[in-house]
Amino acid sequence: MAKARATPKVARRRASAVRPLPSGPHRFLRLVATIRKITRRRRRHRGLTAVSPSSPPPVPVSKRRQCATRPPAPSPPPPREAETPQEPKRPEEEEAHAADAAAVAVAGKYWAHRHSLFSLYDRGVRMDAEGWYSATPEAIAAAQAARAAPAGLVLDAFAGVGGNSIQFAARGCYVVAVEIDPRKVELARHNARIYGVEDMIEFVVGDFFLLAPYLKADLVFLSPPWGGPAYNQTPVYTLDMLKPKDGHAVFQAAQKIAPNIIMFLPRNVDISQVEELSWLSSPPLDFESEESYVQHRFKGITAYFGDVAR
Ligand code: ADP
Known about the structure:
The protein is α/β, with parallel strands linked by helices. The chain has a domain at 103-308: 3-Layer(aba) Sandwich (Rossmann fold). It is 40% helix and 14% strand. The protein has helices at 2-18, 25-44, 61-69, 91-110, 114-117, 129-134, 138-145, 163-170, 182-194, 208-211, 247-255, 271-277, and strands at 153-156, 174-179, 201-205, 219-222, 260-265, 287-294, 297-305. The chain has a seven-stranded mixed sheet with strand order 3-2-1-4-5-7-6, sandwiched between helices. Strand 6 (287-294) and strand 7 (297-305) form a beta hairpin. Helix 1 packs antiparallel against helix 2 and helix 7 (138-145) packs across helix 8 (163-170). The protein binds adenosine-5'-diphosphate. Adenosine-5'-diphosphate binds at residues 130, 133-134, 158, 160, 178-181, 184, 207-209, 223, 225-228, 244.
C-alpha cells in the first residue's frame, strides 16, 4: 500500500516535467528522452497505478504479472444454475436443504391434513418430511394428554416435531421432550412457541435408550418410530417391528422412569402382544386400549398402562 501511495507523486513529477513546453528541436528530443525515462521508470514500478479513492483496490503485482505473461486461460463453460454458488455449502446446510426439499415433497401428499396435525398450522408450524406422516394428529394427541394429571411431569420419549409434547404442555403438564434428531428439536421448539407452551417443555437432544436410566417422571409417552408409512402393509404389526428397538425394550426402559405409560401404536398392531406388556410389571399394570380416530379415520391404537388406564 505504501508503494501504491507513491504513485500519485510519480504522476505529479511527470506532470511538472511536461509543463514547460520545449520550443527548439533539441528541447523536443530531451522531452522525448524524459518521457522515455519516465515510461521506463513506470515499467519498473509496474503494478503501481494511480489509485483514486473510488477505484477498486489494485490487483497484487504478482497476479498482474501472471495476467500479462500467460495466455488467457480458456474460459470454462458457463456453470449451470445449480453449480453457480461459489462458496461450497457446509454439510449441515446441505442436509438442512435436502430435508426441506423432502418435507416440501411429502407435504404435497399430506397437505390436506395439515390442520388435523396442527390446528395452528397457518400461524407458521413447521415440519420435516417424517413429521408430515408421523406426527400424532392434534385431536388424538389432545385426548391422550387429557389422561395426564395436570402439573405432572411427562416424558415424551420420541418427541419428533412436538405434537404430543405441545398437547401435554397445553394441559398444564411439565414436559421433557427427548428427540434424537437436533433438527426436529428445533422444529418442535418453534412449534411449541407458536402454541405458547415453549416454557413448559424442556427439549433434550439425545437417545432415549441412553438417557432412560437417568430419568424420572410421572408419565412416559411413547410413540416410537413405526418404520415409516409402510407400517400398514402387513396384516398384523408385531412389536418387534418398532424401531430402533422392539416394543418390549421400549416399554421396559419406560417402566423404569414412570409408573404410567401411554403408547401410540399402528392400527394393525397385535393387541394381545400390547396387553402382555402390562404383565411385565409385578403386579401387572392396569391396561386399556382404544382406537384413535380423526374424522372417522382410524389412525392408530392408544394403549394406557397404570393409573392412566380407566
Ligand atoms: P415413523 O415415521 O417411523 O413412525 P417417527 O417419525 O414417528 O417414525 O419417529 C418418532 C421420532 O423418534 C422421530 O422423530 C425420530 O427421530 C425419533 N427417534 C428415533 N430413535 C430415537 C431414539 N433412540 N431416541 C430419541 N428419539 C428417537
